[in-house]
Amino acid sequence: MMKQLAGNRNDSWVVIAGLIVAIVIFAYFSAGGNMGTFTITLLSGLLRAMLLFLVAAGLSLIFGLMGILNFAQGAYFMVGAYLAYDIQHPTSGVISLGQHIPNPELRFLVGIIVAIAVGGALGAILETVLLRPLYKRHLFQLVLTFGVSLIMLEGIKAVWSTTPYTWLENIGIQTQRFVIFGASFSYYRLFIIAMGVLLIIGVALLLRRTRIGIIIRAGVEDSEMVSALGINVRSVFTLVFTLGCAMAAFGGAVAAPFLGATIGMGNTFLLASIAVIVLGGLGSYEGTAVGSVIVGLAWATMEQFSIRPGVGSVWASITPMLLLALVLLLRPKGLFGEER
Amino acid sequence: MAANMMLEVDNIHTFIGQFHILEGVTVRVPPGSISVLLGRNGAGKTTTLRSIMGLNAPQQGTIRFDGRDITGKSAYAIARLGIGYVPEHRAVFKELSVRENLEIAARQRGDLDRTADMIFALFPDLKRFINLPGGNLSGGQQQMLAIARALVPDNRLLLIDEPSEGLAPVIIEQLVHAIRELAKEKTVLLVEQNFRVASKLADHYVIIDDGHTVEAGDMNYLIEDKALVQRYLGVS
Fold first, then answer.
1. Does B76 contact A217 at a Cβ distance shorter than 8 Å?
2. For the segment A12-47, what is each residue's pLDDT rounded down to a tens digit?
3. pTM of the predicted model, to two decimals?
4. Which residues of A141-152 are buried (b: 16+ CB within 10 A; e: fewer)?
5. Contacts of B103 in chain A (CB under 8 A)
6. Does residue A132 sit within a domain?
């Protein structure tokens, strides 16, 4: 059995290595052999990967622990972006929460904190008030989270209208760029990549080294048994749901300076994140982290490739799903998935 | 009648979905004893343990632990009263190491430190494989881990479902010895399909048939009553 488990894991790493090598080679080809463009494509892919991870990690943990595919996860990402935008732009925002904060750096920080707090609070409300009565009725939960995502979307339209918002008030780090192989890249985006990596490590340490992490991992396997050990699993559900939604809102807030705040952004990241968690293996944190990197790199590479004449931009949009189909053909349970 | 009983299950009725699984099960477990639930496959033994544990709450009847009504309470609240549960098929956490499987069962800081020597004396293999994932252990070792997990906190009653299921005779002997040892300090309610194992271990028996309690008493009498054993358990 040990050999079989080790074998499965080794197979997964072979598939992962193969995919990443193929994507990197294709990225080089898409960049026309230009090292600057090639490097920027890879960095953009990593940036996309970190944003995907922020949405997908919550999605994966919530699904693993509670069996709920939270269709509202993308809406939390969008709420985070709108709140961060509004606070940063007190003159063009709607709520103008940031009008009493003259310092733009401080406004940006407050925007991120408010996005995390509102995302977490909305997540806690969704879990405790709406989802809790529907435990073990997964189809109802699915419909409910889909409904909540529509309500949040309509709520955003009602407050901010359907007009897309472009980030205008950049802070220092968002304007500074560095040059690599003749191409320039934003320090802010590099900072997001570094922060994403730290977050991947941080959440991994939380799951591996703390009691609550052990409880979450055990709950992903068998939440009933965790409860029979004397642990209030419902409070763990609420905690994970809150954290997952707060992470998605945080992702939206830090992405707003380069993605802006638009109505469709939530769904774009939700669909790609679903591809990530299925590709990585449902409920597997490791799979989600690796899946985010693979999908992020492939997505950015296809965006670069789509610039070529005659290649439609649609190829970039469908890349996550194409990749998902390819991986499921090779490994039907996903890269690190178990039978569920 | 049952003033000195540790556990009193009184005429419980439990449904799973639309199915009426328990239609009047009564079980009395005296403190310091090993009691066993016997019956054919599908009789309702596992559902009885799950009902006691709050995993399938009964819709009629009462369950009292140490005189306290626990009917309908949530599983975690029941566990915290001092009831350890070892489910059918072990349910060890396969991705967690042996150490983490034990740590998660602690209810208070220091629980594992306090009980580790006793656990490793009963199950030395667990000490050897302390850092190995639970899923990498053999079936017997997983059963030992599942029982050990119930020993980490200060549980007074252990509910153990089919401990010998699917295990080799030599492993079953080790488990019988371990359960006898731990019964010196704990009260045990077992579900056991293997009558030989049950007769070696138990002081008292309860026979459940088709969701009803049909017989209960001293195990020594049951061992002698071949007709009863044949009738309800199909063992001669």
1. no
2. 888 889 999 999 999 999 998 899 999 999 999 999
3. 0.86
4. bbebbeebbeeb
5. 211, 214
6. yes
